[in-house]
Amino acid sequence: MPRILHVAAAQMGPNQRADSRTDILARMIELLDEAAGQGAQLVVFPELAFTTFFPRWLLQPGEVDGYFEPAMPNPQVAALFERARERRVGFYVGFAELAEGRRFNTSITVGPDGRTLGKYRKVHLPGSVEPRPGDRFQQLEKRYFDYGDLGFPAFWGPAEWHDPVLGMLVCNDRRWPEAWRCYGLQGIELMLIGYNSAAYDPNGGTSENEALRTFHSTLAVQANAYMNATWAVSVAKAGNEDGSGLIGGSCIVDPNGTVVAQATTLGDEVLVAAIDLDACRQGKEKMFNFAAHRRPQHYRAIVDQIGAVLPPRPATTDERRSA
Amino acid sequence: MPRILHVAAAQMGPNQRADSRTDILARMIELLDEAAGQGAQLVVFPELAFTTFFPRWLLQPGEVDGYFEPAMPNPQVAALFERARERRVGFYVGFAELAEGRRFNTSITVGPDGRTLGKYRKVHLPGSVEPRPGDRFQQLEKRYFDYGDLGFPAFWGPAEWHDPVLGMLVCNDRRWPEAWRCYGLQGIELMLIGYNSAAYDPNGGTSENEALRTFHSTLAVQANAYMNATWAVSVAKAGNEDGSGLIGGSCIVDPNGTVVAQATTLGDEVLVAAIDLDACRQGKEKMFNFAAHRRPQHYRAIVDQIGAVLPPRPATTDERRSA
Asked: Are B204 and B220 in contact (CB under 8 A)?
């Protein structure tokens, strides 16, 4: 018998710096209502869903504080939690977490009863600590956030969702196969991802545009879903946010890596799909039966090294180079 | 100044069991000539290029021996090596290697001077040791081959190729991100892959067909090329081989994961592309600057575990399940 879960991607258009929290909450509740109206049991919101993507700016310490949530839930977001519990809808949401003086780029998944099922803190912080001189756009996540310290903790969804094994990533994490594999090794059946991805290269490169960046985003989710035999819901905050472009392309991807639904706008947009969690089984039992086919004795470099180390040059090359 | 290398995918149609080695060599030389005529400096042939894909059958020990090469080169393949050296073309080729009683699914890359630049032995052997009772098709690589014992050894190409850092995989390896990452951690700029992939699920699953299997093959190469900022040339033996279908879809993929050329037939077919090895630099220096962004302290499960281990169930789930 199939294990059907109705999931939704709740893509958000931009949150301008000047937008009030009340207005942003109202949009999120509207997206939740729309998804619930289409039968969704689990709604995925973006990374840093309650605010603008503030790491694009060099801010003063006092300015930064206002973007962080000292607790979750808290009075500023309570209306979303209440509406979700009323409708018995769970959700994933990303936010800037202030935790005893430490700051994380965090996501949580809330169950249909309002209980928090899992928490994740972004491990792969992109960007830099210091602004890059002369660059129009900055990416200062390494300045404002501590590196996630929870690893990649898979967790169980409730019985009314058919007991799925769930995982969470935040934005840039989705490009790192190590992160997916750590969840794959816990048997996950559904990966939840929120992102804010620039429509230009946020690292200062010049060869990437919006179409290519959207392609990268979808490609990474498709292949890592396939290689770990899991469903994935990957959700953008999109559009022109405070003068900086963010890609859209929110998508729901099956364990074959096939896109089953994808956003077509850069605004608030809901995608809903009925997914069969048992569609993961063929991959997990056959091609990606890890116990049968993985060879960790050859993977040591993945944990023993951080950066790339070129192989030794053959003598002939050395001689030629030094000649 | 760009570092341009002209590479070719030399997709092969089927090698029937009844085909003579002379006939197969003649086809390979024709493909090599065609690629060289289009300017190719490096030609990639498939996995087990000199024979039919014999692991689909349960064979007697005496029958198996005939598929293995006791040395490389050897008189049965010398004509290919000679023609390549005459034309100053290098090549990747896959073959069944007999090495002091051990048997590997091996590939080598030969330089334009005929010297072997690198050797790789397939780490991710798919299939089973014993035939699956009742299944029409078998996949017995685990029976006929020892697991590769060389790890993932990147190596340098010659100066006339602009000193590229090269890597090799064989078939199923391309679906395993650990293998790509071990090469990525050596700074590879060009991955060479040969494959024989069934047009049905060789593991006995029932939900995969030729189109989906070809999609998987291309997707895995695209995303892993992107996530390791490397070029890739991935080459099939394709078509109806001794009554079993093999997918085609040979492709040349850039460091953005974009397919720049792809085969359209299931027969002998040559693709040639001029690739700029420096196109890897943006990825290696920005998004996938491993030294800046990887967090190996959180990747331990990749080497500490082989198979998947589910997370602990919350008490409520346990109680419900046992109720």
From this structure: no
Report yes or no: A203 and B286 within 8 Å, Cβ to Cβ.
yes
Q: Report how far residue A295's alpha carbon sits from residue A236's, in angstroms, rounded to the nearest whole number.
A: 35
**Shortest CA distance to B33 belongs to which of B87, B79, B73?**
B87
B176 reaches A (C-beta below 8 A): yes
CB-based contact, A133 to chain B, within 8 Å:
no
Under an 8 A CB cutoff, do A286 and B203 touch? yes
What lies within 8 Å, CB to CB, of B63 at 6+ separation is none
Tokens of B195: 């494959």
Q: How many helices (H) and strands (E) does chain B have?
A: 10, 15
User: B193, B45 in Cβ contact below 8 A?
Assistant: no
Check residue B298 and report its DSSP letter.
G
| Structure-block tokens of residue A100 | 């005893």
C-alpha span between A42 and A92 (Å, rounded): 8
CA distance B51 to chain A (A): 24
Strands B251-253, B244-246: pairing kind: unpaired
pLDDT, average across residues B97-106: 97
Residue A317 CB contacts under 8 Å (≥ 6 apart), including other chains? B156, B158, B159, B163
CB A109 within 8 A of CB A92: yes
Least reliable range by pLDDT among A93-107, A267-281, B309-323? B309-323
Rounded Cα–Cα distance for residues A16 and B261 (Å)? 42
Q: What are phi and psi of A146, to 5 degrees?
A: -85, 150
The interface pTM score, or ipTM, of the predicted complex is 0.96
Cα(A301)–Cα(B186) distance, rounded to whole angstroms? 9
- Number of alpha helices (DSSP H) and beta strands (DSSP E) in chain A: 10, 15
The pLDDT-based confidence of B320 (bands split at 50, 70, 90) is very low
